[in-house]
Amino acid sequence: MLKYFFIRLLSAIPVLFLVILITFILVRLAPGGPFDQERAAPPAVLANLNKQYHLDDPVVVQFKDYLVNLLRGDFGPSFKYPTRTVTEIILTGLPPTLELGLYALLFAMFVGISTGVMAGLKPNSAQDYIPMTIAMIGICLPSFVLGPLLILGFGIGLEWFPVSGWGDSPGDKVLPAITLGAAYAAYIARLTRGGMLDVMSQDYIRTARAKGLSPARIVGLHALRGALAPVVAFAGPAAAGLLSGSFVVETIYQIPGLGRFYLQAAFNRDYTMILGTTIFFATLIILFNFISDVIQAWINPKLRQSLSK
Amino acid sequence: MFFKSAISLQELNQYEQGRSLSEDAFNRLKKNKFALFGLIYLSVMIVLAVFAPLLAPYAYDAQDLSLGATPPSLAHWMGTDIFGRDQLTRILHGSRVSLMVGFVATAVALLIGVLWGTIAGYSGGKTDAIMMRIVDVLYALPFTIFIILLTVVFGRSIFLLFLAIGAVEWLTMARIVRGQVMALRQQEFIEAAVSMGLSRWQIMSRHLIPNILGPIIVYTTLTIPSVILLESFLSFLGLGIQPPASSWGSLISYGVETIEEYPWLLIFPSLFLSVTLFALNFLGDGLRDAFDPRSSKD
Fold this sequence. Notes:
The structure holds two protein chains of two kinds.
Chain A (H helix, E strand, L loop, with lengths): L1 H28 L13 H10 L6 H13 L14 H36 L4 H15 L2 H15 L16 H27 L2 H8 L4 H13 L1 H25 L4 H11 L2 H29 L1 H8 L1
Chain B lengths: L1 H14 L5 H11 L1 H18 L1 H4 L31 H37 L1 H16 L2 H12 L3 H28 L2 H8 L4 H9 L4 H24 L11 H10 L6 H28 L7
Helix pairs in contact in B: 2-13, 3-5, 3-13, 5-6, 5-8, 5-11, 5-13, 7-8, 8-11, 9-10, 11-12, 11-13, 12-13
């Protein structure tokens, strides 16, 4: 198990290196320098700026310096806001984004697993069809359609929840979390239903029934463990999807998170900021996939045994 | 005797018309109401998109500032936006962009994915290992973020969108195709083709790919909605289609800005996008069941 953990961890390093390299090259290829202004600065000033930011070094040296700084957690200065470093901006934007992602994931897990179990226990009944049709709609409805519709219905129409802001007024985190989590809830519901259908016909469930266990114990203790394996496998990609989904949700609800900073940087052509946030996002996503893989190996006894040999 | 039996075989063929896999699949598809709805809806939508310039009641950039934003009426079935532009016209023109991105980018993904998967699956050994390792690494990259980065670096052009989205979506196609090819490679008819001295290219194009058309068609149908979604996502964020051109995503993002005052600007493009996504997903699911009757819903 430990060996698998380390091998999996090591294999993430080349991927991460590739991400950094590609991003770095792409940003270097971008047209226009970072200091292009409406009015051209005098050449001497430009030369000084280039010198200050080491832009006159050979590209290979710049890349090496950047890597070394990255290892120290230093993403360099922001070109657009010279007084702030990219690291500072990332640290300001990260908490709302992570919080939003966490709530969305909890919502998706709770709603998805409970409806999936319900549907899977009585396949081909109304208890199955109705939630699964809603789930299909949930998968098809993109967050940038669902979000505005929720605002229109529960924000402006019923006035149950505030329509923008983050932590300013009670309840303003509800709509963003639902908007972001809905598609994943739907997907998890489908996965759970599929898992339940597979598991409930297994011999060990019949044994549990024969022992006289209550239905709640059968589902909770025995069936769910097996049924949730595909859900865990999906959690890694889902976490990655939640991160890019946060771009949309943060824009709709005006949440001061990392996704919005990233988009602002993209519009401002703030190259160091784009470089830094891309690498940061990529690291997070690779990390989530890694964690999901390890948990998968850990909860699956067959896989665990073959790994510890 | 021999002569006679040959004739009877011919007669038999006349009565019992051979049904191909795709005919079988289409017959099964016709019984699936959701999938049939998807197919009909999409056909209508494609016709509307292709003939949008002829069908649209107004020019797509015709402004009427004195009119401003009006709710749906007889003259403007879906209302007008703040510049007095006809919403129905803008949606029809937007469907051209959205559908075209969907089809072209999927075609790019299809071409790369099928070639990559077939070559890897048929070659096997080291070539296969290296090619699939590349796919694994690319899979781990955060692509939405990379596409945003690409639009920043190379500007916001529609061709870049095609390329970028196509380049993302081919990975799954390559994996699926490779798996299928690996399974087929062991079969006798491929061995026969090899012993007849056919070239590798001939074997791949005439014997392997036609035999895995089922999964390819299914996955292609399921790729189109995710591509349309990705384009709308980028256009919604302001990184895709630039004004005065419109796509469903950019229309939705205008609609969100004025959601309190003019909700119809949000509702109609959202409706078109969502129903199209439903239709494509229904059709994809239906095709999957039709080509592989054993597969369940999940």
